[in-house]
Amino acid sequence: MAGPxxxxxxxxxxxILQEGEALVRNASVAATELIREAILDGRLEPGRRLKExxxxxxxxxxxxxxxxxxxxLQAEGLVVSTPNRGAMVRVHDAEDxxxxxxxxxxxxxxxxxxxxxxISEQEIEALRESxxxxxxxxxxxxxxxxxxxxxxxxxTILEVAGSARLAAMVRKVIELPLVYKSYVWYSPDQxxxxxxxxxxxxxxxxMRDAERAELIMKEHVFEARDLLVxxxxxxxxxxxxxxxx
Length: 245
Fold this sequence. Notes:
Elements: H1 7-10, H2 13-19, H3 27-40, H4 52-59, H5 63-76, E1 79-82, E2 86-89, H6 94-116, H7 121-136, H8 143-161, H9 164-174, H10 176-179, H11 188-206, H12 210-234, H13 241-244
Antiparallel strand pairs: 1-2
Helix pairs in contact: 3-5, 4-5, 6-8, 6-9, 6-11, 6-12, 7-8, 7-11, 8-9, 11-12
């Protein structure tokens, strides 16, 4: 059986295609977007098998666009394929995550340094408003909104940095804490620390202090790394939905 795989989202594919939204140009793009979102918000958790036939049936499309979608997600690093098990949501161990966050700190720190020399007053104000929205949200009551707001903050800085290649590299690593539901582990104190880092980053950008902005962003990334890695080390082999059934 397919299990509780986000039926409310997958059932929307036909409607999305009929409405012809700009994002969805064809069935494979629709499948890629919806499967990616289900992975990122944790409904298709690390280690979960992704069976073409089941996904095609739930999406209401043929297996060919589903196969194309899984290949695209494999290229993005969210899905892996093995000869015996087929496609599955990628699993990272604690050491792998630690290594990836080291890379993220370097890349996103550099992006923040670049942003400090390019940012406009309007963009600074947008980041300040993001800080206020982020501060008002609760992980328990508004988890998806909190995730979206955090992505908006970090993606805005990447856009201001003005390097498409750098942004593409950083975004792959930013997605990882979403896959592992790291925001679920946020305590009020931990969320407060993130809010503090966001505001300090904005203050450094507003002063066009590139060195300080880079340093604070790196500290922020390492704080997030410590939370995620400690949780993964405490539970290195979480059971998938299939294994719990």
